[in-house]
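Priority: medium. Attachment 1 of 2:
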């Protein structure tokens, strides 16, 4: 069939298999061109099919030569419906990993469930023995608690008062004011239950109890802090509360793993175009301005550059990872440089529909958004008949 993008707001409901494969290939080639990392041998990435998780998996396999297990929630193609982008990305990743001689296995299902944890542990036990790195990179709108059966929904809302700021419809370039009502106590509780640290803790406990977490293992989960512009809706809002919980979990896990020489980290990453960040009001506009400013300063990075830097300059340097005063790894350091943020703030004040293309890099935002789904990718013939049914070679 001919596969074209079909969008609904910040969601694209189709994905292109060859375009996704080309995007994965680009990331693989970037890592292959960098110095090798003396890093982990066997890696489990939970949330491995898109964004930061996919980039972590690529750096593990192609930067450190590790075997990888990826857990993710994606759908295969069915009839005239394409698979989701993460499905195609994972199929392409596995094909590339096989060429490079590293083992890779994929598990599709709900990472929050006991079943998927048990299935993953069985796979690790039979195929790899143990893992020495767990990357926790799940971003989800919902979670069903494995013990109580309660289903929680996460919301992106401010806390305490209504937040109003500029936002953009990135399809049309229209800049408007968005107002978001403050979250209720229950919405805060539910967001923490979805995006906080409980499930990360459950993964570590399950892996340890099963004896498949190697001594000296490392674990890392990702956070975002960002500038004043987004604080009310992000860091000081519901999602920030969840990230605080994730940070507290990292401290507990670090103590739990330390007796066996292990380590747990939060890495604060840069704002980037992913399926998750596209859903946050204000953030796409901020990213469009940030891209312009960082490109002008020669400091622009995408997921793969960020993750290569995390592994090679923070986690696996042979020395203790440099941490901020709260004990976090910072690879948002370039984004947060004062000269970058001053320039972003200056532009932000003047932004409107009339000057958006001049003052921001909305064109790149839009292009990268479509590239997440395998569209707008050089070398792909989007008018060609394409089979949407693609197998993931080592799907368990
Ligand atoms: P993403 O949407 O690209 O990826 C999310 C991954 O989680 C996908 O692989 C998806 O399949 C998987 N997933 C979702 N629900 C699942 C479930 N129930 N079971 C198994 N897998 C599931 O998101 P991302 O932007 O890469 O975010 C990953 C992490 O990085 C999050 O913690 C996010 O807060 C953090 N982060 C993101 C940014 C950003 O700008 N995008 C910046 C800093 C930190």
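Attachment 2 of 2:
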């Amino acid at each position: 069939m001919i596969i074209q993008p079909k969008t609904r707001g910040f969601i694209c409901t189709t994905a292109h298999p060859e375009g996704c494969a080309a995007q994965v290939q680009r990331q693989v080639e970037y890592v292959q061109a960098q110095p090798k990392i003396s890093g982990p041998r066997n890696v489990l990435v939970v949330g491995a099919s898109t964004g930061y998780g996919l980039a972590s998996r690529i750096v593990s396999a192609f930067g450190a030569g590790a075997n990888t297990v990826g857990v993710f929630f994606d759908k295969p193609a069915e009839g005239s419906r394409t698979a989701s982008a993460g499905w195609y990305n994972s199929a392409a990743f596995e094909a590339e990993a096989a060429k490079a001689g590293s083992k890779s296995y994929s598990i599709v299902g709900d990472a929050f469930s006991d079943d998927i944890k048990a299935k993953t542990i069985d796979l690790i036990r039979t195929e790899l023995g143990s893992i020495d790195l767990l990357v926790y990179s799940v971003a989800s709108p919902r979670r069903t608690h494995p013990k109580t059966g309660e289903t929680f929904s996460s919301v992106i809302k401010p806390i305490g008062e209504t937040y109003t700021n500029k936002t953009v419809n990135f399809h049309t370039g229209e800049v408007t004011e968005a107002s978001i009502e403050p979250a209720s106590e229950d919405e805060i509780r539910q967001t923490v239950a979805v995006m906080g640290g409980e499930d990360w803790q459950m993964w570590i406990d399950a892996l340890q109890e099963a004896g498949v977490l190697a001594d000296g293992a490392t674990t890392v989960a990702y956070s975002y802090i960002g500038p004043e512009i987004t604080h009310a809706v992000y860091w000081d809002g519901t999602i920030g509360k969840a990230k605080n919980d994730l940070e507290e979990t990292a401290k507990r896990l670090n103590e739990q793993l330390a007796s066996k020489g292990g380590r747990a980290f939060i890495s604060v990453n840069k704002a980037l175009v992913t399926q998750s960040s596209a859903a946050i009001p204000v953030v796409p506009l901020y990213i469009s301005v940030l891209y312009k400013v960082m490109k002008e300063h020669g400091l622009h990075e995408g997921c793969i550059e960020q993750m290569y830097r995390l592994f090679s300059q923070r986690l696996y340097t042979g020395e203790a990872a440099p941490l901020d005063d709260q004990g976090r790894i910072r690879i948002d350091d370039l984004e947060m440089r004062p000269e970058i943020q001053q320039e972003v703030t200056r532009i932000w004040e003047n932004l409107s529909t009339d000057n958006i293309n001049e003052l921001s890099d909305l064109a790149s935002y839009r292009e990268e958004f479509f590239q997440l789904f395998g569209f707008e990718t050089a070398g792909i013939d989007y008018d060609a008949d394409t089979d949407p049914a693609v197998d993931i070679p080592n799907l368990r």
